[in-house]
Design a protein that fits this description.
14 helices; Neuraminidase; Rossmann fold; ten-stranded mixed beta sheet; 2 domains; about 725 residues; alpha+beta; five-stranded antiparallel beta sheet
């Protein structure tokens, strides 16, 4: 039997933790919540797409050596300048202290997917300085800022960009790694331009060949790195060199080519007889190693479904001490770190059946005792990445907390009492606005008994009529802006009369792509049916959108059901052009295609291609599509996007100089606003009267006429 439950937000004071059974028992049915008037209309300020874009995000908080202060970086979008402002702060952990601005953080560095790279400061042992990598004036350097806010300065001043650094244990020297100089890279690019660029497995086929991508602050000639779609500039594989800086005199010296910095142990350093852990945390004082190892039957799954928490006395040991407490067995443990100067491992549980809400526990590796520290309604960690960790001292955690209705804020958590203290809330105004149209956590099962969770922003009702529904599928952790990739402003849609549901993909990555997509479709179908049966949404007015896997599930839902009245995606899917443009890639690339999608070449596995690729299902798609695709990926979509555009069944926008996840603020805002326009047009027959949008709506009206004619055709 399928059920739909709504869960009250549960804020637990101190260290009291709800078990999984108790937590899931504390639910109210959707009907009860309706009777209670939860969704009655409220007059309040709106939550605009721009407000969601301009949320202040935290970098990883790091506690000072004496435990009295925390350093962190704030990142915020600027639409006017189409960039991001970053600022470093230091804050006392005493009650009532305000954060102190200590330095400009420069332009955020990003990974190949467009995600802001972690900004982790390193304290000097005496607590006078924080050190960090920053991109300033076209140069990546290691900087130090005085913790009292009196100034900041670059340290390396090297002809090459700094890739990595560490501070010596005594604080006297700083060590940093560089590769090819900026001049050498520019010269290599120009030489290629002059002599012709040889196309090989590292060249992204179909994209600009010369200085066409912004990599680390400069327009660069790009190359693939790694098995998938990592990107780097020319000479990224040049020999790396380590150098040292005397932090008193600022004198620099080259280190021998044989120099290697000391690093925490990795899985390959452990005894060969041990199962390979997927996460390690070493205690620098004792050499003990906490481990997370996947356990259980992995049949049909990419990874074993369970997690075992254990500890090794040292890296040569082959006899781990396993945590046997009920609180750490059969739990979704996702993070570990040592409590300084103690025998305790702090571990984070990210509970799938509670919508991936997080709790933190402490395990004494000597006594075996496990005690709860805190429980959150959403994330309690080191930032947007749910696998990131809090800052920690012997007495305190400093964490970024965020949930569907609460934008990121900084909290102090006492490790013994669990008492929580708000330190910094830069998004407090938005948090107040979110209370007018709060998300409600949902949990339901489909016809096969599969449990799904999600967050629903119920539209303000007009005359009691069921509202249209927008669905996005992938992950819904932390503060909900626009789904994974932040392209569909959920709260904004709800305020405009379209209920918005974010659905979490259940745990366990299914090896078979058809099963993966089918599970997603089942989650969407069951949610729509249950909400419609309750009278909350109109099942004939359902829209859907997603990024990456969310795009795959959206296309699968559109081509394998009649659920959708409109759709919007931002990622290409597997189709023959995808294979063609990557034809020169390494064997590892094609091994991944076979492993994740069951695909060889189109000639080798034609039947599987006809099942997987949307190119072969265009006639089954009844919903109009909006494509808002980054430039780096749009060529992979042309096999199915162009036929739909040619038949006026789709509208295609490509965003220049964007990777997998768009990040330029103006592009993000344009995607947000166009998605609101799109779903209001198709689900509510609403048109924005702004003169700049006249052409947009003229084309969409043509699409509507064409789609109607197709539907009425015999």
């Amino acid at each position: 039997m399928r059920t739909l439950e709504t869960k009250k937000r549960c804020v637990v004071p101190g260290p009291r933790i709800l078990t999984k059974r108790v937590f899931l028992g504390r639910v109210l049915t959707l009907a009860v919540m309706m009777v209670a008037g939860f969704w009655s209309p409220v007059q309040a300020q709106t939550v605009s797409p721009r407000q969601l874009l301009e949320v202040a995000d935290f970098g990883a908080p790091v506690v000072s050596p004496d435990g009295s202060r925390v350093a962190f970086r704030i990142e915020r979008a600027s639409v006017e300048r189409n960039t991001y402002d970053t600022t470093w702060y230091v804050q006392e952990l005493a009650d009532g202290a305000e954060p102190r601005r200590v330095a400009d953080g420069g332009v955020p560095l990003r990974d190949a997917a467009g995600i802001s790279s972690p900004a982790v400061p390193v304290w000097s042992p005496d607590g006078r300085w924080i050190h960090y990598i920053a991109l300033m004036d076209g140069r990546i350097d290691v900087w130090r800022a005085a913790a009292d806010g009196s100034g900041a300065e670059p340290l390396a001043l090297d002809a090459a960009d700094v890739r990595e650094f560490s501070v010596g244990d005594d604080g006297r020297e700083l060590f940093y790694r560089v590769g090819a100089t900026r001049e050498e890279v520019a010269a290599a690019e120009q030489a290629e331009y002059d002599n012709g660029i040889r196309i090989d497995k590292q060249v992204p086929i179909g994209q600009g060949l010369f200085r066409s991508v912004n990599i680390e602050g400069r327009w660069a000639t790009q190359r693939y790195v790694g098995m998938w779609f990592g990107r780097a500039a020319l000479l990224a594989d040049a020999p790396q060199r380590w150098k040292a800086i005397d932090l008193a005199s600022l004198q620099r010296r080259d280190l021998p080519a044989s120099y290697q910095p000391s690093r925490p142990p990795v899985a390959s350093d452990l005894s060969a007889g041990l199962p390979r852990p997927w996460k390690l945390a070493s205690d620098p004082g004792t050499g003990r190693i906490a481990m997370l190892t996947r356990v259980g039957n992995s049949q049909g799954l990419r990874d074993a479904p369970g997690v075992q928490l254990s500890m090794l006395p040292d890296k040569s040991s082959s006899h781990p001490v396993v945590c046997m407490s009920e609180m750490c067995t059969a739990r979704a443990i996702t993070g570990i770190q040592w409590r300084p100067r103690s025998d305790e491992v702090l571990f984070t549980v990210t509970e799938p059946d509670a919508g991936y809400a997080q709790s933190i526990f402490r395990w004494n590796v000597g006594s075996g005792v496990v005690l709860p520290v805190t429980q959150a309604a959403g994330l309690v960690n080191g930032g947007r990445d749910r696998f990131s960790g809090c800052g920690v001292s012997a007495a305190t955690l400093v964490c970024i907390t965020a949930d569907a209705n609460q934008p990121p804020q900084l909290e102090r958590i006492d490790l013994d009492s669990g008492r929580r203290q708000l330190l910094f809330a830069p998004n407090s105004a938005l948090a107040g606005h979110m209370q007018a149209i709060p998300a409600q956590p949902l949990r339901w099962t489909d016809a096969d008994g599969q449990v799904f969770t999600g967050q629903l922003f119920q539209a303000r009702l007009a005359g009691g009529a069921p509202s249209p529904l927008f669905v996005t599928y992938y992950h819904c952790s932390g503060f909900l802006r626009g789904g994974v990739g932040d392209e569909w402003p959920l709260a904004s849609l709800a305020e405009q009369g379209i209920s918005a549901l974010c659905i979490n993909d259940p745990p366990g990555y299914l090896v078979d792509a058809v099963e993966r997509f089918g599970r997603g479709l089942s989650g969407v179908r069951s949610a729509v049916e249950l909400l419609a049966a309750d009278g909350r949404i109109d099942p004939k007015k359902v829209g859907m959108g997603g990024l990456s896997f969310g795009s795959e599930v959206t296309l699968w839902t559109a081509s394998h059901s009649d659920l959708l009245a409109a759709a919007s995606i931002t990622s290409p899917e597997i189709e023959p052009n995808y294979f063609l443009f990557n034809a020169l890639r390494d064997d590892a690339f094609f091994a991944e295609l076979r492993k994740s999608w069951g695909l060889g070449s189109p000639e080798e596995t034609p039947d599987r291609w006809r099942v997987i690729s949307p190119t072969y299902h265009l006639e089954q798609i009844r919903a109009p599509f909006l494509f808002q695709i980054p430039e780096q990926e749009y060529l992979y979509s042309l096999g199915f996007s162009l036929p739909l555009v040619r038949e006026q069944r789709a509208d295609l926008y490509v965003f220049p100089n964007e990777p997998h996840q768009k990040f330029q603020p103006r592009h993000k805002l344009a995607a947000y606003e166009r998605n609101v326009d799109w779903f209001r047009f198709w689900l509510q027959r609403h048109e924005d009267g702004h003169p700049a949008k006249t052409g947009q709506y003229a084309y969409w009206r043509q699409m509507r006429t064409v789609m109607k004619q197709r539907d009425e055709a015999p």
